[in-house]
Amino acid sequence: MRVLRTVEAVRDFTRAHQQAGRTVGFVPTMGALHTGHLALMGSAAEHADVVLASIFVNPTQFGPNEDLDAYPRDEAGDLAKAESAGCEAVFMPSVEVMYPPGAATTVAVPTLAQYLCGQSRPTHFAGVCQVVLKLFNIVRCDVAVFGQKDYQQLAIIRRMVRDLNVPVKVVGHPIVRAEDGLALSSRNAYLDAEQRQEALALNQAVAQVGAAWRNGERDAQRLLSIARNRLEAARGAQIDYVEIADPDDLSPLDGEISGGVLVAVAVFFGSTRLIDNGVFTPKT
């Protein structure tokens, strides 16, 4: 497996494979790789001939007082995991490579970024769009895979790709969970034993909404109350948001729901912020 550090090296890698008739699948990450990331790499291998991942802790998507400096980093371990997942190369740029002096261009999808995580992290998705568009332009991949745990991020990236005519197919991969149901996240490593147990409330809240939905409940406020009540019962939980939203435009739903529904939650345990979601359709 090759480790690439420069824009030129990545473009040479992609160009060589594409000129040989092979498609390139791409998985952007911030490292601290876990089973969820490896599943994305496996999905990329199903959609393309060659898999390239990136590992870059992107400073522009962290707000003031967030965990940029503390974000877990393990270069040697990450490279071993990426290789085990079948990656042929990993792009590991420095901040200076990604953001040369004087870089000033920003990218945003404000209509989707205003909801959910965007309410408490108003600059986050502009930073995500900026780095993902830069990575797409550097890698020039055919397919890119993102996890559905970050549902809002996936929706925003898809909209950006559509609006800006970026020639890449964006694939969403279902949430990868631990055996007890907790959505896998690099930030799970911050939780102590009690917090780890109480964090199961996120998945349970989503699951309880899903059960009510399958039993015919269509009132947005009653579905919201089901999720909120479960989260409020979790010891040490500080709710950032609980939303019943439109799965397409992410706007909050009220009253009787006629189409599908997104339930999305974000909760702090101490300083650790976790998210989870589920999408339910009339056929669910």
Describe the structure.
By secondary structure, this protein is of the alpha/beta class. It folds into 2 domains: 172 residues, Rossmann fold (3-Layer(aba) Sandwich), CATH 3.40.50.620; 93 residues, Pantoate-beta-alanine ligase, C-terminal domain (Pantoate--beta-alanine Ligase, Chain: A,domain 2, 2-Layer Sandwich), CATH 3.30.1300.10. Helix content is 39%, strand content 19%. The chain has 11 helices and 9 strands. It has a 6-stranded parallel β-sheet with strand order 1-4-3-2-5-6, sandwiched between helices. Strands 7-8-9 form a 3-stranded antiparallel β-sheet, with helices on one face. The longest helix is centred in the middle third of the chain and has 16 residues. The N and C termini lie far apart (41 Å). The model has no long low-confidence stretch (mean pLDDT 97).
- Order of the strands making up the biggest sheet: 1-4-3-2-5-6
Structural class: alpha/beta
The third-level CATH topology of the largest domain is Rossmann fold
Spell out the CATH superfamily of the largest domain.
HUPs
> What is the CATH domain class of the largest domain?
Alpha Beta
Number of separate helices: 11
Corresponding CATH architecture of the largest domain: 3-Layer(aba) Sandwich
User: Could you describe the largest sheet, including whether it forms a barrel?
Assistant: 6 strands, parallel
Structure, briefly:
By secondary structure, the chain is α/β, with parallel strands linked by helices. The protein folds into two domains: 2-173, Rossmann fold (3-Layer(aba) Sandwich); 186-278, Pantoate--beta-alanine Ligase, Chain: A,domain 2.
